[in-house]
Amino acid sequence: MPSPIRIDDPADPRIAAYRAIRERDLVGREGLFIAEGEVVVRVLLGGARHAPVSLLIAEKRIAGLSAPIAALPADVPVYAVSQEIMDGIAGFPMHRGILALGRRAPEIGATALLAGLTAGALVVVLFGIANHDNMGGIFRNVAAFGADAVVLDSDCCDPLYRKAIRVSVGGALRVPFARLPRGEDGLALLTRHGFDTLALSPAGATGLADVTRGERMAVLFGSEGPGLPAEVLARARTVRIAMAGKLDSLNVATASGIVLHHLSSG
Fold first, then answer.
1. What is the pLDDT of residues 184-233, one digit of tens each?
2. How many CB atoms are located within 10 Å of the residue 12 CB?
3. Domain boundary among 38, 73, 103
4. Considering the entire predicted model, what is its pTM?
5. Are residues 163 and 253 in the same domain?
6. Is 106 exposed, middle or buried (0-12, 13-18, 19+ CB in 10 A)?
C-alpha cells in the first residue's frame, strides 16, 4: 500500500493538477481527468479502461478507501490533506473529500469501436450534447441498462469532464466511447456496420411501445431544444415517447433512460 504523503500547502507543486479544478475543466487536461467522490474513485481504481495517476484525499476519508488504496501500484502517490487544505486546493468546499487524477485510455476511432462490438450490440449516438449534466446522465443510463458503447459527434462535450463523470456515477469511466471527426457521416458509418438506427423525436413516426430490440441497434439523441439535425431525422427510423397533456418533449437524459430501459427489457 502506498504510504500517504502529507500535504500542508495548497500551493505544493505535487498537487498542481488538482488546483482550481472547477476552472481547469474548461480548458482541458492534456489527456488527464479528475474523478470526484468515493463511488466514482472506486470505479476508477477498480476498472481497466483508465489508469489512476494519483489520489488526493482528506485525512478523515483514507480509512474508508484502505482496500482499493492497498491495491494501487507503488508508483501512484496518495496525498493526504486536511479538509481545509482540500477546500483550498479545489477552490470551493469539497465535502466529498476524495479526488483522483486519472489518465485517459488511448482514444479509439468510431470505426474501430463499432467493428469490435458483438452481433447484438446496442449503441447510443449523441448529437450536440453540450451540457455536462445531460452527458453524465446519459452515460449513467447507458451503464445501468447495459448498452455497449456511445458514439459522440464533434459538437458533444467531453464525457470525462469532472462534472460529467460525477453525474454519471462513474458510468463515463466504464462505457467505451468514441468521437466522430467533424464532417464524418455517422449514419453511413452505422449502416456499414449493420446497425438499425432509431432517431428520437417528439414527431417520431413510431411509438416507442411498438419498437422491439433488433440484432444491432443504434439509438440517436439530439440536444434539448434543437433536437436531432433534420438530415439525420430524414435518414433514420424516427421514434417518439408517448406523453400525456401538452408536453411534447423530455430532458434528453430522461428520454435516454426510458428508451434504454425499454430496449433492455424487450
1. 999 999 999 999 999 999 999 999 999 999 889 999 999 988 899 999 99
2. 17
3. 103
4. 0.93
5. yes
6. exposed
Choice among 4-18, 51-65, 209-223, 241-255 with the minimum mean pLDDT: 241-255
Specify which residues 55 forms β-bridges with. 78, 100
Last residue of a domain, one of 50, 75, 103: 103
**For residue 246, what pLDDT band results from cuts at 50, 70 and 90?**
confident
- Burial label, 42 (beta-carbon count in 10 A; 0-12, 13-18, 19+): middle
Query: For the domain that residue 77 is a member of, what is the CATH number?
Result: 3.30.1330.30
